[in-house]
Amino acid sequence: MIFLRIATSAGRVIIRNKLRSALMMLGVVIGIIALTLVVSAALGARQRVMERVKKFGLDSLMVTAVSGVQSGRQAPGQQITSLKIEDAKALLEEIEDITGVAPFNRRAQSEIIFMDRATTSTVFGVTPEWVPVWDWDVKSGEFLTEQDMEKFDRVAVIGESTRFELFKDSNPIGETIRIGNVPFIIKGVMAEKGISPGGGDMDNRVYIPLTTFMRRIANVDYIFGIKVRLNTARNMEKTAESISAILRERHRIPRDLPDDFSIRLPDEVKEMAEKVSGTFSMLLILVASIALLAGGVVVSSIMLISVNERRREIGLRKTLGARRSQILLQFLLESTMITLSGGVLGIIIGYFGARIISALTGLPAVISWQSFILGVLFSGLVGLLAGLQPARKAASLEPVESLRA
Questions:
Q1: CB distance 16 to 288 below 8 Å
Q2: 3-state secondary structure of 311
Q3: Backbone phi, then psi, for 29, in 5-degree steps?
Q4: Does residue 53 register a pLDDT over 50?
Q5: Secondary structure, 3-state, 186-241
Q6: Is residue 400 over pLDDT 60?
């Protein structure tokens, strides 16, 4: 009953001093808006990370050649050339849990020319298994075939970003592009895939038969990597060990020497993608923390001014029998009620702000119950901490000295 009377009295003071309450509330509103946007951005970043990992494939792993010093035979930075197409075939034949392999080679920053237009894309030499292993469909036309591989055909399938850069809104099927000085006829356009786990544009690519790439583009007999798809993700680590054992045996690597290949699992891809978005999230958290700290300082300062202005009121209440704890409680309730109100308002504004930012920028924004809970908890905590010193000062005032003020 006493608590209810004190809370009612605190509410009357807040309503009576509208401008002061609004100023105290403003700092908290800004801080909670920032916090809501941070949580929304962090959850959105996590969602994007999982989307990127799914693009890699939760039931897939990647085998790539490793650059560096190997067996004392290569100079630092020299490309390892021991990974072959035959390695991919051996993995498919010898490991039961593997359902598909997609060996590939690539060349980044390649100039792609169509008539008087040019763009820069990554050229991939791939096999027809690329589509089922990567779970990636063709949007128009058709993908590369075994016949294209056998005949070393100069045909290409392009990504959506490359298509737009070279052809805008026109149909590219049947047109001829040049990769360097070699002409290729476009036979298909891939469906949009978006951003890779490493942050690159997966739609800014050109796919040509692996055999054509190795003979006409790069003039090599080795491949860069093998995408491996498994029957189930449950035995992924065991399968990775089997892959390692087979490749070490095929490459005749002695026990005391390291691998000349690398095996990347989905967990490692997830970790890499999280690192890419981690710096951005940390910056947002810092901004939100500063905003909340500034809001707390504003509340504490104005509450201290309020204590000085209400010295006679405090002295009169103490003279009439109000205890120190009751004065302390009222000032704490005042600061907490103001910050909680600011917190709720900040959450509402932050919610719509996150939606607007997401619509304007295309960045993911996830609004969940965590945002609301954190907003309420932090605003209440700011109110308690900011109001503690002013409440103690008010409770410690002597009645006689206060009435003389």
A1: no
A2: helix
A3: -60, -45
A4: yes
A5: EEEEECCCCECCCCCECCCEEEEEHHHHHHHHCCCCCCCEEEEEECCCCCHHHHHH
A6: no
The Cα 186–Cα 140 span in angstroms is 11
DSSP string, 97-121: TEEEEEEEEEEEEEEEEETTEEEEE
Q: Tell me: the pLDDT tens digits for 305-319?
A: 777 767 677 666 667
Helix (H) / strand (E) element for 182: namely strand 182-190
133-179 per-position pLDDT tens digit: 998 889 999 999 999 999 999 999 999 999 999 998 899 999 999 99
Question: Looking at residue 360, what is its pLDDT?
Answer: 77
Which of 102, 64, 100, 61 lies closest to 81 in space, CA to CA?
64
Q: Outline where DSSP puts E strands in 37-152.
A: 60-65, 98-114, 117-126, 138-141
Q: Does position 264 have pLDDT exceeding 80, yes or no?
A: yes
Q: Which residue bears the tokens 């690329």?
A: 130
Separation CA 321–CA 326 (nearest Å): 10
- DSSP codes joined into one string, 247-303: HHHHTT--TTS--SEEEE-HHHHHHHHHHHHHHHHHHHHHHHHHHHHHHHHHHHHHH
72 to 65, 69, 181: CA distances (angstroms): 16, 6, 37
pTM to 2 decimal places: 0.61
Q: How far is CA 237 from CA 45, 92, 241, in A?
A: 27, 17, 6
pLDDT (average), residues 244-273 = 83
Phi and psi at residue 365, to the nearest 5°: -135, 115
Q: For residue 158, give the H/E element and its range.
A: strand 155-158
